[in-house]
Amino acid sequence: MNDYASSNDIAGATAKFFKSRGVGFYLLLPVVIISFIIPFVYNAGLGKDYFSAAAFALPFLAIPLFAGAFFKPTSKYVALALFILEFVALLLFVKAAYMQLAKGFLDDNDLLAAAGPHFIFCVIAYLVNIVLSVTAMFLRQYKRDNLPTVTVETEGVAE
Asked: pLDDT tens digits, residue range 5-38?
């Protein structure tokens, strides 16, 4: 009977945890998931000749940065930190892929063919992450506590 009670307590605590989160928290979840996928796509498509370890490793930092969203004092800074991380990672990615793109463009005279689907996916994924991070900056990570409402009586007040 104890195990059943403890599982109900865990389920209740988990439900309470997710009910207390705001829209900004949920917007940052896809940022972390996409940030986890980007390095593998980058390595599969563009990691042949001009591989950058920093461009590969930097998106993985989104996971520990997102951990700050679980604590109320640091939650308001997580979206800003993820925005900065994604922007710097995009710049490092473009820097690392630039030479490969230039070489492919000079050989084929077709920039889209030189870029390939991996490059396009990574750039679009970084831009989506940046937009979601900026949007999450303006939205709450936690829901407001139920504050008592104040009613103002207007009887007897001159208009």
From this structure: 566 787 777 777 667 677 778 888 999 999 999 9
Q: Tally the C-alpha atoms within 13 A of residue 51's C-alpha that lie toward its C-beta.
A: 13
**Per-residue tokens: 39:** 């390095």
C-alpha dist (Å) from residue 37 to 43, 61, 131, 146: 10, 12, 17, 38
Q: Contact, 54 vs 39, CB < 8 A?
A: no
Whole-angstrom Cα Rg for the chain: 23
Are the CB atoms for 69 and 141 separated by under 8 Å? yes
CB atoms within 10 A of CB 126: 21
Helices (H), ranges, 47-71: 53-57, 62-66
Concatenating the DSSP letter of every residue in 118-149 gives: HHHHHHHHHHHHHHHHHHHHTS-SBPPP-PPP
List of residues 6+ apart from 42 with CB closer than 8 A: 55, 56, 93, 97, 118, 122
Q: Are 141 and 21 in contact (CB under 8 A)?
A: yes
| Whether the model pTM is above 0.85 | no
